[in-house]
Amino acid sequence: MPDTRVVVIGAGVGGLISAALLAVRGCDVTVVDAASSPGGKLRAVTVDGAAIDAGPTVFTMRGLFEEIFATCGESLDDHLATRPATTLARHAWGDARLDLFADPAASEAAIGAFAGAADARGYRAFRAEARRLFEALDRPFLRDTKTDPITLGWRMGAHGFRDYLNLRAYGSMWHALGGYFRDPRLRQLFGRYATYCGSSPLRCPATLMLIAHVEASGVWLVEGGMHRLAGALEALARTQGVRFRYGKPVREIVVERGRAAGVVLASGERLTASAVICNADPAAIADGRFGSAVRHAVSRVAPARRSLSAMVWTARARATGFPLARHTVFFSDDYPAEFAALSAGRLADRPSVYVCAQDRDAGDVAPAGAERVQVIVNAPPTGDGARPTATELDQCTQRMLDSVSRAGLSLDLGPSAVLTTPSDFARLCPSTGGALYGPASHGWAASFRRQGSRTRIAGLYCAGGSTHPGAGVPMAALSGRLAADCLLRDRASTSRSRPTAMPGGISTRPATTGATG
Question: Residue 159: what pLDDT?
Answer without folding.
Answer: 87
